[in-house]
Write a structure and sequence with these properties.
Elements (H helix, E strand, L loop, with lengths): L6 E8 L11 E5 L4 E5 L5 E6 L4 E6 L2 E9 L8 E9 L6 E7 L3 H10 L2
Antiparallel strand pairs: 1-2, 1-8, 2-3, 3-4, 5-6, 6-7, 7-8
Length: about 120
Amino acid sequence: MEFPEKAIIIDQVNGPGDGNNLEDCYFIWFSDSKTYSFFDKCGNEKGSGLTVDSIIIFHLDYVHHLEWALSIGPGSDSTFVKGNWTNVPDCEPEGSYQATAGGSAEVLKHAASATL
């Protein structure tokens, strides 16, 4: 999968199996407004104008039966985002996630080999 330049890709999810559906979703950081936009792994924007301590509620088109809540936690910045996720209406944190610019080492390896 190709990601936009500067994508901060969810590459680690902890918690129940549903959380795996968040892998490869990503954030884009906008330095002028100091906000994030959040995209599913198909590139569909699910939220914008997000800041640290924001909570976004959304649906993933490829997981019809769940509504998600995702928080952006303290310590997140322009290259790293972390937080918690849950399925609504539970509203109890079910797991955590972390996203890094460029994604995991495996994603970076594929990106590097694609540019040769």
